Amino acid sequence: MRFVSVRELRSQSARILGELDRSEVVVTSNGAPVAILTPVTAESVDIVLRAQRQARAALAMVELQSGAARSGLDRLTDMEIESEIELARRDRKRTE
Description:
Elements: E1 2-5, H1 6-11, H2 13-18, E2 25-29, E3 32-37, H3 45-71, H4 78-95
Parallel strand pairs: 1-2
Antiparallel strand pairs: 2-3
């Protein structure tokens, strides 16, 4: 995996894209990662996109679970969860 800055990608995009067949490229802005370029073919683009979407969904679930654990929400009983859902539904009906 290689790291390139946005500036480098802008000025040397043809070379960087030409080297994508070797490995992924992490694009950085001010030293922080902002994107990942990954090689695809016409045959693999749908599969790669689906895999990336699944990975993002799994990451979002992990982040939600971690946030719930930090705030103690992972210890709610089923009855407490049902109560919260009912309150949210009532609030939504009032605003509609």
